[in-house]
Design goal:
The protein has helices spanning 19-36, 48-52, 64-69, 79-112, 128-149, 172-192, and strands at residues 6-8, 12-18, 121-126. By secondary structure, the chain is mainly alpha-helical.
């Protein structure tokens, strides 16, 4: 189980994590929460139903990582498609942000509930619902890190340039996190396959 998810009864999954892995995953999830931003909670005395019908932004985020997490629905090739994308974003982005925030919070909470053993390792057991949240967050983390690293299809492809970065390259720690998250994501997907 060390280093990869394994299926558990009831559609869940489990993975053994050491203290460093737990700290890295928690830190990345918290940073993702900060990037996505706080939720729009109704102010005191405000009708909570009104928040359900609040419109979101119509313009894409200027931060490239956020633009990757909240992409244009229809592209931006012409005026008509830009207008349709703006309309779609206005009515969907708030819900998408809420879901991404909830997924990242599940990651933080499940990691906070772990009790490492004497050797510093702990087994993280996830329910089927928690697996879906983890899968969403792992994907969001990889998209964010990949955008920050300006990863393209060629970088991790046949030439394997991500694997050949010298240790002196300042991107090396983030590349290692990116690749590790990819491995975790892959094994989690495999556990969820019928």
């Amino acid at each position: 189980m060390a280093g990869h998810f394994e299926a558990t009864p009831g559609g869940g999954a489990a993975v053994a994590l050491d203290e460093v892995e737990i700290a890295i995953l928690r830190s990345l999830a918290v940073q993702l929460l900060e990037l996505i931003g706080p939720g729009d909670e109704p102010a005191e005395g405000e009708d909570p139903l009104a928040a359900l019908f609040a419109e979101g932004p119509s313009e894409p985020p200027s931060d490239p990582a956020l633009a990757r997490l909240f992409p244009e629905a229809y592209g931006d090739d012409d005026t008509e498609l830009r207008a349709a994308s703006a309309e779609f974003r206005r009515f969907t982005e708030n819900d998408l942000r809420t879901r991404k925030r909830e997924d990242a919070l599940v990651v933080v909470r499940t990691l906070d509930a772990l009790t490492p053993a004497g050797d510093g390792a702990a087994v993280l057991g996830l329910t089927a619902d928690e697996c879906r949240s983890w899968l969403g967050s792992l994907n969001d983390l990889r998209l964010t890190i990949g955008t920050r690293l300006e990863v393209s299809d060629e970088d991790g492809g046949e030439d394997g340039s991500l694997y050949r970065l010298p240790d002196s390259d300042p991107r090396k720690p983030m590349v290692m996190a990116y690749l590790w998250l990819g491995a975790l994501q892959e094994t989690l997907v495999e556990t969820l396959m019928p």
